[in-house]
Every structure is written in C-alpha cells, then in structure tokens.
C-alpha cells in the first residue's frame, strides 16, 4: 500500500529523534572530532536555543535585513523554535554542549502544494569552520532523512545576494525549483531550490468504490 503526501508528512512528524539520530550516525564520518545530534525544538534546552540563535543572528541578520525577507527577530525566533522544527546540531568535541556548537540545520517535514517535502529552513556553519565539508555533510544527512520518510523533495530558499550559499547549493546538486518566482517571470531577490528525492508520478485520488470494472 502506498501513502499520500499528507499521510507521509503525518508519519514523519511523529518520528522520534532517536530514529533521525541513527541516520546521523550512519551517514557522517568521524572526522574533525565532530558530533552530529538530532533534536526536536522541544528537546533543546535554553543554552542550546541561545547558541543556535546566536549563530543564526551572526550569519544572517544583516543579509536578511537588507532583503525583502527582512529581519523580524520575534517572528524569526518563533519560526526557528516552532514545535515542528527539527535540528541537526554539530558540536566540536565529545559533548553536545552549547559552547561546542559549530553548525546546525533546522528543517521541517511539510506539504508544499501537492508534494511532501523536507524543507530546510536554515543551514548555518560558523565562520571558522567553513570549507571543511560540514555544510555538505549536513545536506547529505537531510537527504537521507528525507528519503527514509519518503519525502519527494529537499527544498530551501536562498537569497540571491548570498553568493556563497548560491554557489554552495549548486555544488551540492540543488536546482531552481518549479515553484521559484524565477519560473513565473518574477524578479524577486530570492530563489527556491530543490533536489528531487523520489521520482514518482503521484495519483492519489481515491479509488472508485468498485475497481473491478
Ligand atoms: C553556505 C555554507 C552553509 C556552506 O557550508 P560549508 O561547510 O562551508 O561548505 P562545505 O565545506 O561543505 O562545501 C561543500 C562544497 O561547496 C563548495 N562551496 C562552499 N562554499 C563555497 C563558496 N563560497 N564558493 C564556492 N564554492 C563553495 C565547496 O568548495 C565544496 O565543494 P567540494 O566538496 O566539491 O570541494 C556556509 O558557508 C555558511 O554557513 N554560510 C553562512 C550562512 C548561510 O549563508 N547559510 C545558507 C543560508 S540559505
């Protein structure tokens, strides 16, 4: 039996962090003494939330404030720590302590139009740790998680002015998504990118009551 995109998202939302943690461990290499940890928003303590927020603010505040997205700290904070937000946190050292946080990704399982997707809201690596493969590794983990819960795409939004991120996403295999404003002739300052996880023609309409005819 197959499942509709809505059913898949409902199932993924229930997945315990321990299941995501297993995929982190199977799909990361033990280099640079890095620890990858999967948590739900509700499983982050106050110090970790603060460390996540500080890294995000340091990397993104100025860029977002200058864009159409803007920087509304209250709204952004609520989005970040929404109950459906999930995190892959990267620590340098053996302990998942706030002071050891060097990178993270925040994502959610969602329905986007007719699709079920793993939407990557944030990918943040602290400046001193960039260019070491952490961003690629995080995207790889997200891909494995998305595939495991049978999401159809891995999606994200990137500001065109964020040239480094645009190059990074192209390098790790993202393309402009069909839903991106560019495809409708709009000149927005952001692009929606995606990577297909499951190639399938979906037709989930209810079968007619009598399928013998
Ligand atoms: C974008 C970002 C996440 C990339 O993470 P990273 O850990 O530095 O990237 P990696 O080291 O894993 O690089 C992976 C590949 O992308 C390429 N790449 C990364 N940054 C690049 C850049 N600025 N220009 C060109 N290529 C780049 C690398 O060369 C590498 O290619 P290779 O594996 O073939 O050698 C990181 O720079 C970052 O956190 N930036 C600030 C926050 C941000 O803009 N986040 C994205 C918001 S949408």
From TrEMBL:
Give the family, as the similarity comment puts it.
Belongs to the acetyltransferase family. NAA40 subfamily.
Give GO terms: molecular function aspect only: histone H2A acetyltransferase activity; histone H4 acetyltransferase activity; protein N-terminal-serine acetyltransferase activity
Q: Which domain of life is it from?
A: Eukaryota
Catalytic reaction list: N-terminal L-seryl-[histone H4] + acetyl-CoA = N-terminal N(alpha)-acetyl-L-seryl-[histone H4] + CoA + H(+); N-terminal L-seryl-[histone H2A] + acetyl-CoA = N-terminal N(alpha)-acetyl-L-seryl-[histone H2A] + CoA + H(+)
What this protein is called in its record is: N-alpha-acetyltransferase 40
Q: What organism does the record attribute this protein to? A: Ephemerocybe angulata
Q: Name the EC number(s).
A: 2.3.1.257
Under InterPro entries, the record lists: Acyl_CoA_acyltransferase, GNAT_dom, NAA40
Provide the organism lineage as a comma list: Eukaryota, Fungi, Dikarya, Basidiomycota, Agaricomycotina
Record's SUPFAM superfamilies? Acyl-CoA N-acyltransferases (Nat)
What the entry lists under PANTHER family is as follows: N-ALPHA-ACETYLTRANSFERASE 40
């Amino acid at each position: 039996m197959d499942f509709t995109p809505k059913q898949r998202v409902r199932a993924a939302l229930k997945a315990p962090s321990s299941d995501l943690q297993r995929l982190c461990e199977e799909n990361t290499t033990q280099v640079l003494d890095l620890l990858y940890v999967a948590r739900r928003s509700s499983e982050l303590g106050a110090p970790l939330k603060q460390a996540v927020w500080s890294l995000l603010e340091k990397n993104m505040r100025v860029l977002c404030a200058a864009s159409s997205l803007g920087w509304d700290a209250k709204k952004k904070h609520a989005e970040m720590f929404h109950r459906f937000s999930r995190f892959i946190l990267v620590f340098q050292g053996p302990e998942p302590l706030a002071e050891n946080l060097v990178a993270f990704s925040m994502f959610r399982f969602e329905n986007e139009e007719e699709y079920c997707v793993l939407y990557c809201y944030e990918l943040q690596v602290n400046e001193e740790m960039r260019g070491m493969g952490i961003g690629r590794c995080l995207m790889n983990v997200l891909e494995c998680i998305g595939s495991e819960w049978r999401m159809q795409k891995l999606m994200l939004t990137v500001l065109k002015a964020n040239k480094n991120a645009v190059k990074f996403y192209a390098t790790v295999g993202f393309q402009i998504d069909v839903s991106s404003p560019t495809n409708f002739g709009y000149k927005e300052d952001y692009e929606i990118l995606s990577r297909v996880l499951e190639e399938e023609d979906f037709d989930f309409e209810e079968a007619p009551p009598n399928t013998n005819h």
